[in-house]
Design a protein that fits this description.
heterodimer, A: 298 residues, alpha/beta, B: 318 residues, 15 helices, 80% helix
Chain lengths: 298, 318
């Protein structure tokens, strides 16, 4: 069984800007991977390379195919929402459904209609008459009805209300996802995806800062709500990050001894957004993060 | 193979959905325009010519002409209507093709199209087929409806004039021949104009903006440079001029049954016997189809299309 995504020394430069810097990446089948990074970190470039939409240096195989050469073949099994609201504005809803049905061998009309029935979208409407959120709903309904091996979602829920976002991620997990499929998601709304992710990748300046399974991450990183008296001791243990919430000090540790942490205070799983801030946030934490996770980036 | 044809068919249909004005509404509007002007002419005519006496007399005189001339007038008049349709069609196609690989890059919907398992070759092919097959068929539909409607109006008047409408109007109009010839001719002209179409598609595939302007300006500038260069270097007009070649090709391509321009231009005019064959001849269309010029053009067209596929392959939303 070939890996869904297999990349070695994947690089892409735009003039003097390095969008991807020697990235190595392996994603097996049956994962839900969150690709998280600040704006301009190289997320979109990485996705475009995977989808065969941009040139790149290095080796890249997606489902065993080279996306820069076998794009047409690859698109049989790969599905993507590259960005919000890119459906053709002149088309009507039924035309888009007809087109996708006739052009995509793995599209199931019944599933698409089922999802559309939950929205207020009318089949006769023109795309240009739909609201931004409705266009996203339509696009998601189309994509969920395609039986793909790799689904790439670039900011899929931008412009959607919170009810629909929750609904969407729950459908994605419960109805769409299975062990043959891989889903790659980028989003800024990290809190909403973290409970469905199996893998987490942080990307910054074209390099992978973190690339691990969620289980390993929870094993490795620990958040401690430190008792007021133990703050100095906690600081001495070389924490990754410290923040203050309602007067309580919260420390994030990388591979600290569980026994010692227990004595310091309440232990939590860190949230992805706190990890993100700790690893990518201010410069000082950043420098530590680079030193601390060097082997992951390599 | 069958799968490929159904996929191409839906892609070509997509073109009609995207550009309903170019493919659907323009022929409808032309039909409306011609119908309206004929009715207007009749209404105004009735003011001057109460009970259409003169019109009916005219029809009676027409009925007494010798058959050869009747044929020439009837088919010629109807043919000129089809020429209007075709000329408008080629004009509309220029704009359609110049936008064909550009509009979705501009509004970013290219990302949606690229998410479907459709090869770039197939995408480009669908644009070519829309211009070479779909448009001629739809415009021919408009021509058929217009010609039949006009003949029906003439028939109504003819019945009042007590003439044999069949032998006077319908037989000389020779509609089945016109329609087959137009179908054949417009397919051949699609091939003839392929280098022009391909040039527009090619410009559309990479132009950062205003592909139509680039498509016109580039040959214009090259043509003018050639002109000046050869004029200043040896005081002669250039023998080979890109702009003139392109204009010549468009000029010879605007009617489906190629009028034998060469014959008109080279002879002194008086020697040409006015006959139906001048504008309606299967022979001249076929000669046209098998000319060397035709196939050189096809080869250039295919090269440009291959280049357009190359650019399309690399095109994204930025």
């Amino acid at each position: 069984m070939t890996a869904t995504i297999h990349a070695r020394n994947l690089s892409r430069r735009y003039g003097s800007t390095v969008a991807l810097d020697d990235v190595d990446l392996d994603v097996p089948a049956g994962r839900i991977v969150g690709l998280i990074g600040p704006n301009g970190a190289g997320k979109t470039t990485a996705l475009k390379a995977i989808l065969g939409l941009t040139r790149f240096d290095g080796t890249l195989e997606v489902l065993g195919l080279d996306p820069s050469k076998n794009r047409d073949e690859l698109m049989q099994d790969v599905c993507f929402i590259a960005d919000v609201a890119v459906l053709p504005r002149w088309a009507r809803v039924w035309q888009i459904i007809d087109l996708t049905e006739k052009l995509h061998p793995r599209f199931d009309r019944a599933i698409c209609l089922k999802y559309l029935a939950k929205t207020k979208i009318k089949h006769k409407s023109k795309i240009r008459a739909l609201s931004k959120g409705m266009i996203v709903q339509l696009h998601l309904a189309l994509v969920m009805a395609i039986d793909a091996k790799l689904l790439v979602l670039d900011e899929p829920t931008l412009g959607l209300d919170i009810l629909f976002r929750k609904q969407f991620y729950s459908n994605l997990l419960n109805e769409y996802f299975d062990e043959q499929r891989t889903i790659l998601i980028t989003t800024h709304q990290v809190e909403e995806v973290e409970h469905i992710l199996t893998d987490l990748i942080f990307i910054k300046d074209g390099k992978l800062i973190l690339n691990d399974t969620m289980d390993d991450i929870y094993e490795r990183y620990t958040e401690v709500l430190v008792k007021p008296g133990d703050v100095d001791e906690a600081r001495s243990m070389n924490p990754l990050h410290e923040r203050v919430l309602f007067g309580r000090h919260i420390f994030l540790f990388d591979q600290a001894e569980a026994m010692r942490l227990d004595d310091l205070g309440e232990i939590h799983k860190p949230s992805v957004s706190d990890l993100f801030v700790a690893l990518m946030g201010d410069k000082e934490a950043d420098a530590e993060a680079h030193a601390g996770t060097g082997e992951d980036a390599g | 193979m069958k799968d490929m044809i159904t996929r191409l068919a839906i892609l070509v249909r997509r073109e009609m959905w995207e550009s309903p004005v170019a493919f659907k509404w323009t022929p409808v509007i032309l039909f409306g325009f011609i119908l309206l002007s004929s009715i207007l002419a009749l209404v105004i005519g009735m003011r001057v010519d109460g009970d259409l006496v003169f019109t009916r007399d005219g029809l009676r005189m027409f009925a007494e002409l010798d058959p050869e001339q009747r044929r020439l007038f009837a088919s010629g008049a109807l043919f000129s209507i089809s020429a209007l349709f075709h000329q408008v069609m080629y004009l509309v196609l220029i704009f359609y093709l110049a936008g064909s690989l550009y509009d979705d890059r501009r509004d970013r919907s290219i990302l949606f199209w690229k998410s479907l398992p459709v090869s770039d070759t197939m995408t480009v092919a669908s644009k070519v087929l829309a211009a070479c097959i779909l448009a001629p068929l739809l415009y021919l539909g408009g021509i058929v409806i217009t010609q039949v409607t006009l003949l029906v109006i003439a028939t109504a008047i003819g019945l009042f004039a007590d003439i044999n409408v069949f032998s006077t109007l319908w037989a000389p109009a020779n509609l089945p021949k016109q329609w087959t010839l137009m179908l054949y001719g417009s397919i051949v002209q699609g091939l003839w104009l392929l280098p022009i179409y391909a040039w527009l598609i090619f410009c559309s595939s990479w132009a950062p903006r205003l592909p139509i302007l680039i498509a016109v300006l580039v040959p214009l500038l090259i043509g003018m440079l050639q002109h000046f260069w050869s004029f200043f270097s040896n005081f002669k007009l250039p023998e080979v001029n890109l702009l003139l070649i392109m204009l010549d090709r468009i000029g010879k391509g605007v009617t489906p049954a190629s009028i034998e321009w060469e014959q008109i231009v080279t002879s002194d005019g008086a020697n040409i016997r006015p006959s139906e064959d001048l504008f309606m001849s299967f022979g001249s269309v076929t000669r046209h189809l098998f000319s060397l010029e035709m196939w050189i053009g096809v080869a250039i067209g295919l090269t440009l299309l291959a280049a357009a596929v190359w650019f399309r392959r690399r095109a994204t939303d930025n």
